[in-house]
Target: Probable membrane transporter protein
Amino acid sequence: MQNIFLFISTLLAYFVKSITGFGNTLVMGSLFSFVVSNRLTTPVDLIFSIPTNMYIAWRERKNISLKVVIPLSLMLLVGIIPGTFFLRVGNDRILKSILGIVVVGMALEMLTRKPTENETKKNSPIFLIIIGIISGVLAGLYGIGALLVAYISRTTNNKSEFRANICCVFLVDNVFRFFLYLFTGILNKEIFMLTLILSPAVILGMIIGVKVDSKMKEETVEKSVIALLVISGTVLLIKSLLYN
Model:
């Protein structure tokens, strides 16, 4: 039953990824955390993220802006190292509690976000540094670039630009963390075996997502994702606080 739950969760996560360009780690992290440790979830999602981010970045390559990608990638890498350290030594109950807060906060940010079509909002270098480093810490812990999603959504003009830049930044993060996780011993035989088992779910989720994306309204998909994140994050937080 646990493997079936993980398979369905993975399929759902990469269905969302295929449509929006992000969200796989938020969905996968939330659902996986009900049955397995974050030390297992994060590296498994990392391995899946590399080829999927590569695919989406290549598909949207004409919309990539190096002015967005390069500075964010550099700041992200700075924060990944301490985040990875906390992943190794942190208490799993505390990690899940923090993840619940992050997931709910991200969902609420998406819910209250105002459309920025045809308008590019510029932020100060200090704000960019803070966003990048905190996102790096979250990426090291969970692979989540929650703040990056909010930032890039405000510095791009359309869905294609958003997908291109967010997946390109995530890809830089993925490659760096892959070697860092290998060096620190986070990636092991158990991780690779679970990855192999769940691979068909990723492929199926991406295929379904591509087909649905061309027929389903983006607003409908976004509202569904927000609802799922709020419910998952809230339940996860309550569970972590009330139970050992």
In short: Confidence is low (pLDDT under 50) at residues 116-121. The CA atoms of residues 86 and 141 lie 7 Å apart. The first helix runs from residue 2 to 20.
